[in-house]
């Protein structure tokens, strides 16, 4: 059960794209106006740095997950607390992601279907893939779906070219100023939290160094894609409207037309994006299950599926409307608590402690 | 000089077969499994007649030479080549007598060594059981008075089907021959294509009753040893009374029986089998069926037609893409139509939507029911077309095309667009080069259709995700089913989405043969591998 480098590339690519295409474009444009692209570039640099810290931390313990080495670094009690809070965070985040996917389908395709049907169906598929294939199965799924998502998005750009009003981009540096640009970068930078997966993945890689390079490359290409999508929405709708729409990219797709014949293809794009979202949900579900098993010292990690899956379904069904998964959680929980604490500080702190330990050990000798 | 007796009834007894007698016979065969051949010919004969009682097709023939040496010939009528039997066994023995330098035959070995019998394959057996086994394998067994061994001569003959053109896998360019029911003919067809000692043919016998011969064929040095070992083990594990078709073996050795996708490829074509062998796969040839099994099978192998490798590569690639599209359509086209016309009409262009709505106006059923009925009708016609005698076949096609075509539309029961959709889907499902793979698509289509009728595009997505999840986790003899796309192996992409020119294929396009992956040495010239 191992992941290859190319699978890592596609997994990271899909995880970042399918998250950011929905959550990131609108808030970034809202804060930074035309400077959104600069915000996104800054966010990419920051995000890759956080990802680098997490990778370095993981590489120090190539045969362990964070649930094991946090105890080595912080002592048993503190390590347990760190593990538990990471597990809770992963569990809730993947549940909310599941809910977010269902909400998207609910909004774009079906407003009359009860939400629990969608949640249960997606969860069934996630459990099927995770149970049968484990991380290798998810990796192979990503390899199949990744190129399809990439090609679909490229086609939508191409189809949208006639709608582009390039003057909407000027002035390239907007009035929002440095403060605005930095502030605008936070939503996208926080999306790089997908690289938290490296805290668990590294022991599961065939060639850790190569896979990490591939994963980083995947993040980078995804962010290029997202930045370009951001620009396309701005040139199509202008920054005012792009900041206000709930999911501007799908509105853009709804806008395209080919020979006055192919129209309203947003359903098709949602159709494809569902594949990506499913991959991302499966990935986080796997990380949660595998993490719980590692934390409990269980050899047969698949057994944890049977209590993590119902738990996540319940969490996903708790919010009464889609405001929780689309606004409240990303902006209030993820951005205010998880992003600064779990993605930036904790890995940095753990890396410092690990480096200190290595340093003292070598100086003692 | 001799007498021929056809074994019409048991030598020692009544015509009615009592339960007790059967028990006795059974006991006899079981207890005395390794009974040696008696030196007295009469004893041998009576023992054989008991064992082979009520077998009217077995011929016993005894005769003497120079009133010195007593022979007995036993064979199954119809299974041996009687012409050869006469020419090379009976004639020399009876007419030409013994060669002058041999006064008498001291042992059967002498008979063979003295070149008395001009036959190619002969071996000595020393137990009754072996003798009967050889006899039933289309052999002639010669017993000699005063000798404790018998001579089994392979004289397979009788009626068999000639090598004909394949009926299940057609092609335009390329070889036209196909496998037959005879195992030896089939292995010969392979040997003629791969004339190299590296081509190995291992034989096994499976089936307690049928004793069916099976050959495991592979190219040594190219084959994946782990796959080969698994094939041997899985075949050895088979415990069944009879093997009548390749499907029996397939169900025993496949990895997951509940998958709708075939994990063992079957072919009627020697060229397909030979090219698979060169890619490092293993072929299983079974006596009594023209279908040869090839393992491991991948998803992409199902998309390759024999023509792909004989046509020019540009055309072959284009056709392969058409095939990919059609396979996808055969799985999802009715579902997309139902989903788009029921749940997402805004997607369909305005004018097209108008004509669809116009056609659907008088139809009493919802689109999904209509699709189900039509698909069901189509499957009925297809099944009837296969089963019915040829003379009635045309009537079915005629009535069928009227029923699911014009009349149904005119009567306002089915809409014309639905007829088009169902026919396109039907045609698309027959473009899959592997019939067994096409059937899995037809089966899954109904599931997708149901989900599309319930949840529209999302339902189709759920089904496709489910099928993809299944495919990426499926394995055939330890080889991932979606190889080389997931997991990706860039070096093997030369024969998946495109078929590169042959001089560019310098490594084997399938990864099983890692041991010897080089296919061609430098330049455009040929090289020994």
From TrEMBL, chain A:
Pfam name, any one: Spore_permease
UniProt keyword list: Germination, Membrane, Transmembrane, Transmembrane helix, Transport
Statement: the UniProt record of this protein carries the keyword Transport: yes
Topology of the protein relative to the lipid bilayer: Multi-pass membrane protein
Localization in the cell: Membrane
Segments crossing the lipid bilayer: 7-25, 37-61, 73-95, 115-131, 138-159, 188-206, 218-239, 268-293, 305-328, 334-354
Taxonomic superkingdom: Bacteria
Sequence similarity: Belongs to the amino acid-polyamine-organocation (APC) superfamily. Spore germination protein (SGP) (TC 2.A.3.9) family.
Protein name: Endospore germination permease
Organism annotation: Alicyclobacillus fastidiosus
């Amino acid at each position: 059960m191992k992941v290859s480098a190319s699978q890592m590339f596609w997994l990271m690519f899909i995880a970042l794209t399918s998250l950011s295409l929905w959550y990131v474009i609108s808030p970034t444009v809202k804060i930074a106006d035309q400077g959104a692209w600069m915000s996104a570039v800054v966010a990419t640099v920051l995000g890759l740095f956080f990802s680098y810290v997490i990778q370095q931390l993981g590489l120090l313990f190539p045969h362990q997950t964070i649930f094991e080495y946090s105890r080595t670094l912080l002592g048993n009690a503190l390590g347990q607390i760190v593990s538990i809070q990471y597990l809770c965070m992963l569990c809730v985040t993947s549940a909310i992601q599941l809910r977010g996917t269902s909400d998207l389908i609910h909004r774009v395709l079906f407003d009359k279907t009860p939400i629990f049907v969608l949640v249960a169906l997606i969860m069934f598929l996630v459990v099927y893939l995770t149970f049968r294939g484990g991380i290798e199965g998810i990796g192979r799924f990503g390899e199949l779906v990744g190129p399809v998502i990439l090609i679909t998005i490229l086609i939508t750009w191409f189809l949208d070219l006639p709608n582009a009003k390039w003057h909407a981009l000027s002035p390239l540096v907007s009035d929002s100023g440095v403060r605005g640009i930095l502030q605008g970068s936070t939503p996208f930078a926080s999306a790089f939290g997908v690289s938290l997966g490296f805290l668990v993945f590294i022991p599961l890689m065939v060639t850790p160094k190569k896979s990490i390079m591939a994963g980083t490359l995947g993040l980078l290409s995804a962010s290029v894609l997202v930045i370009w999508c951001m620009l396309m929405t701005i040139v199509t709708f202008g920054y005012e409207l792009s900041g206000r729409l709930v999911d501007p990219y799908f509105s853009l797709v709804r806008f395209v037309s080919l020979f006055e014949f192919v129209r309203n293809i947003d359903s098709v794009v949602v159709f494809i994006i569902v594949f990506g979202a499913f991959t991302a949900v499966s990935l986080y579900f796997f990380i949660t299950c595998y993490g719980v098993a590692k934390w409990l010292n269980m050899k047969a990690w698949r057994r944890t599926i049977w209590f993590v899956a119902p738990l996540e379904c319940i969490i996903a069904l708790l919010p009464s409307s889609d405001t929780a998964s689309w606004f409240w959680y990303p902006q209030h929980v993820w951005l205010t608590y998880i992003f600064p604490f779990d993605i930036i500080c904790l890995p940095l702190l753990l890396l410092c402690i690990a480096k200190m330990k290595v340093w003292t050990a070598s100086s003692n000798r | 000089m001799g007498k021929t007796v056809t074994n019409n009834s048991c030598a020692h007894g009544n015509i009615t077969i009592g339960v007790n007698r059967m028990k006795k016979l059974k006991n006899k065969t079981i207890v005395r499994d390794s009974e040696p051949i008696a030196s007295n010919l009469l004893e041998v004969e009576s023992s054989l007649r008991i064992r082979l009682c009520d077998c009217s097709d077995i011929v016993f023939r005894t005769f003497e030479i120079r009133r010195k040496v007593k022979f007995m010939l036993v064979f199954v009528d119809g299974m041996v080549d009687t012409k050869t039997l006469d020419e090379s066994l009976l004639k020399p023995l009876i007419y030409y007598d013994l060669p002058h330098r041999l006064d008498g035959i001291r042992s059967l070995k002498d008979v063979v060594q003295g070149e008395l019998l001009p036959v190619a394959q002969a071996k000595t057996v020393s137990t009754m059981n072996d003798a009967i086994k050889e006899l039933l394998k289309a052999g002639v067994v010669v017993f000699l008075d005063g000798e404790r061994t018998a001579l089994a001569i392979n004289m397979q003959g009788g009626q068999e089907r000639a090598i004909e053109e394949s009926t299940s896998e057609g092609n335009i360019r390329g070889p036209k021959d196909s496998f037959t029911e005879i195992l030896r003919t089939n292995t010969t067809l392979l040997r003629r294509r791969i004339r190299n000692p590296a081509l190995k043919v291992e034989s096994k016998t499976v089936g307690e009753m049928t004793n069916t011969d099976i050959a495991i064929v592979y190219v040594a040095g190219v084959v994946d040893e782990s796959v080969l070992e698994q094939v041997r083990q899985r075949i050895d594990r088979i415990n069944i009374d009879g093997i009548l078709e390749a499907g029996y073996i397939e169900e025993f050795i496949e990895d997951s029986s509940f998958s709708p996708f075939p994990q063992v490829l079957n072919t009627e074509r020697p060229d397909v089998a030979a090219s698979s062998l060169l890619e490092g796969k293993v072929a299983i040839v079974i006596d009594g069926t023209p279908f040869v099994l090839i393992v491991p099978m991948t998803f992409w192998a199902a998309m390759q037609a024999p023509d792909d490798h004989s046509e020019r590569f540009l055309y072959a690639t284009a056709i392969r893409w058409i095939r990919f599209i059609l396979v996808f359509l055969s799985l999802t086209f009715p579902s997309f139509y139902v989903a788009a016309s029921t749940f997402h009409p805004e997607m369909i262009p305005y004018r097209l939507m108008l004509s669809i709505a116009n056609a659907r106006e008088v139809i009493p059923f919802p689109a999904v029911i209509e699709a189900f009925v039509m698909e069901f009708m189509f499957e009925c016609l297809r099944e009837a077309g296969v089963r019915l005698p040829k003379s009635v076949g045309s009537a079915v096609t005629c009535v069928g095309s009227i029923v699911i075509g014009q009349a149904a539309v005119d009567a306002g029961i089915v809409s014309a667009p639905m007829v088009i959709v169902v026919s396109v889907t039907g045609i698309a499902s027959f473009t899959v080069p592997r019939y067994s793979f096409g059937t899995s698509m037809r089966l899954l289509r109904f599931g997708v259709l149901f989900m599309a009728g319930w949840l529209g595009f999302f339902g189709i997505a759920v089904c496709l995700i489910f099928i993809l999840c299944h495919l990426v986790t499926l394995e055939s003899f330890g080889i991932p089913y979606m190889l080389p796309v997931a997991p990706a192996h860039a070096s093997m992409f030369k024969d998946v989405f495109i078929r590169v020119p042959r001089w560019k294929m310098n490594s084997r396009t399938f990864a099983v043969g890692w041991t010897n992956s080089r296919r061609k040495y430098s330049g455009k010239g040929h090289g020994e591998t």
